[in-house]
Design brief:
14 strands; 3 domains; 350 residues; six-stranded mixed sheet; Rossmann fold; six-stranded parallel sheet; 12 helices; 434 Repressor (Amino-terminal Domain); alpha/beta
């Protein structure tokens, strides 16, 4: 506050800090909404006058006239930035459907050059009508302010048990069943020693994968070998180092389930460098069914998520939230096994 007092307020957030209110409240005062008390309105207006603050006309409101634009907040990863193929496919489906509905997309990374982005400030300045968030978790900086605002927020690939706000909606794949399908397939091929690679530990996809994987192994009476569960992200690099870690154990699994296709590609590279083959030495099941799966050697067996469908559903859901004031709070989409060449049958179960 002291540093702010020494300079002119430049943003709605600055005014909100000086007034001790939310950015949403400042926006409502600027746009003359009635659901602000007289005392709060007077305090905010006095600070606006004192600071000679002139709001950006584009940022006129959180909930005023429709701008026909949707904010999209993406998790920024220092390895692959905003160009991950998973996000690309969802964005393509989302953007195409929004265009059909006469809406535009405004894309923000959740961090830039190592600094977190103020979600609510970005949304206010761009005057978006709703927000779609991909790869953003509930512990992300500045999420609570956005959650407590009036903006509808649709989260991709996360569920809402611990969501801190009132206008949250959730669209996710059934990763639990995806992991079960992968284990079922490997078990049917005769595999009894199975590992798990990849996944950001505290995310919904990774938790669901682990739960489904372990539950299925237990159902089949198979050992859960913690030393065969490795990796801390969904990237190729994570898969590479996770596979190297497993290969250093005294015994290795006959098959691994990967939590992304990028992780599987990294695992294939680690096997090749170790002089081992897939599926001859280790069978691999990926997850996502991105384009590269068809061109790896061997072509990758994987669990398919219909990313284009999810993008279309995301667009329809966020527009329903805006126009109707509500939508199904949580939607879980099915996944399916795609069989290619990266898994082999084991004739003996001994």
């Amino acid at each position: 506050m002291d540093n702010l007092s020494a300079r002119r307020a430049k943003t709605l957030k600055d005014i909100a800090e000086l007034a001790g209110v939310s950015v949403t409240t400042v926006s409502k005062v600027i746009n003359n909404y009635s659901d602000v008390s007289d005392s709060t309105r007077a305090k905010v207006q006095a600070i606006i006058h004192k600071e000679s603050f002139c709001p950006d006309p584009v940022a006129s409101s959180l909930s005023g006239k429709a701008s026909y634009s949707i904010g999209v907040i993406l998790r920024y990863n220092p390895v692959w930035g905003l160009h991950h193929s998973f996000f690309y496919k969802v964005m393509f489906g989302l953007g195409r459907r929004l265009g059909q509905l006469n809406y535009d997309c405004v894309v923000f990374p959740d961090a830039w050059l190592g600094e977190p982005v103020d979600y609510l400030e970005k949304c206010v300045r761009r005057r978006v009508d709703g927000v779609v968030l991909m790869g953003v978790d509930f512990d992300s900086p500045n999420l609570e302010a956005l959650a407590q605002s009036d903006l509808p927020c649709l989260f991709i690939d996360i569920v809402g048990d611990n969501y801190p706000g009132k206008n949250g909606y959730f669209l996710a794949w059934d990763h639990y069943q995806g992991a079960c399908q992968a284990v079922d397939y490997l078990y049917a091929l005769g595999h009894r020693q199975i590992g798990l690679l990849g996944g950001l530990p505290n995310t919904y996809p990774a938790r669901s994968h682990r739960d489904g994987f372990k539950q299925r192994l237990s159902q089949y009476g198979l050992a859960i070998r913690e030393e065969w569960i490795a990796g801390d992200d969904f990237t190729e690099e994570s898969g590479y180092y996770a596979m190297k870690t497993i290969l250093q154990q005294s015994s290795i699994p006959t098959a691994v389930v990967c939590q992304s296709d990028a992780t599987a590609v990294g695992a294939l590279r680690a096997l090749e460098q170790a002089g081992l083959s897939c599926p001859g030495d280790v069978s691999i099941v990926g997850y996502d069914d991105i384009e590269v799966c068809r061109y790896t050697h061997p072509a990758l067996t994987t669990i398919r998520q219909d990313t284009l469908l999810l993008g279309r559903m995301a667009a329809d859901t966020i527009i329903e939230c805006i126009r109707e004031g509500c939508a199904p709070r949580e939607q879980i989409l099915p996944v399916s096994l795609i069989v290619r060449d990266s898994c082999r049958r084991i004739e003996s179960n001994a």
